[in-house]
Amino acid sequence: MLSELSISKWLKAEKVVVFTGAGISAESGIPTFRDQGGLWDQYRPEELANEEAFRSRPDFVWQWYQWRRSLIRQAEPNEAHIALVEMEHMKPEFTLISQNVDGFHKLAGSQKLLELHGNIQLDKCIDCQQPYEQSTEGLEEPPLCRECGGLIRPGVVWFGENLSPKVMALSAQAVSNCDFFITIGTSAIVQPAASLIYMAKQNGAYIIEINPNISAAEDIVDDFIRDTATVGTSYLLELLEDNSLDRHI
Ligand code: OAD
Hints:
It is a single chain. This protein has 249 residues and is an alpha/beta fold. Helix content is 39%, strand content 17%. The chain is built from 10 helices and 9 strands. Strands 3-2-1-7-8-9 form a 6-stranded parallel sheet, sandwiched between helices. Strands 5-4-6 form a 3-stranded antiparallel sheet. The structure holds 2'-O-acetyl adenosine-5-diphosphoribose. The site of 2'-O-acetyl adenosine-5-diphosphoribose (OAD) has 26 residues, from loops.
């Protein structure tokens, strides 16, 4: 699936960054955003994924997030999430940066994980930003903050909002230091997240992509696996396992 050069770079790589998008959870049954039938194919982000929309129609937006949360609660991490946990144990430095809010990487057991867009299962106050610790499962409308009376909202990053400066800084640090970068299941068009791929390129990392379709990163990746996340990550893992066996024979 990969060229000889890519395989050799992968086996030798010591500082690895993996960057994931919605496509890695597609095989868990979670819809992506921009594929046919994806969330942004059926719904308008302007009506759902920004603060103004939430303030003007809180129940409507809340219920959409409740629906997404219930989909995620009924699903589970797939082989690709699990393969990344294994890889983390096999490389000296390994950082996983995800745009996903489903929490599946954490659930699978990834340790060095940076969630750029937050986590959909966490809630916080829209005004004072205090985390809301009580369960909101089954609620049809957003509760109110106990501190300030503000609306409780899902703990995800909406359009027009800044990413956590700390998470972004840690991501940039890992990317600027890595020698091998793998982008998996992302259309690579949402900024500033997608800029990490370009940062990796500028810093001289070798870049591969796992995606059954062409993404916006196509021109800058060094090689790609045009297949699904589970197939691509199992293949990368097998290469590592075979290599460590060879070394022991
Ligand atoms: P997109 O929906 O934009 O892209 C999903 C990508 O996954 C596409 O390139 C698909 O080809 C690919 N894909 C589909 N099935 C796959 C599979 N089985 N294995 C591997 N790849 C597959 O999702 P993202 O790039 O993650 O923002 O979108 C980025 C951001 O846009 C999201 O984080 C979200 C959204 O608005 C926020 O929530 C802030």
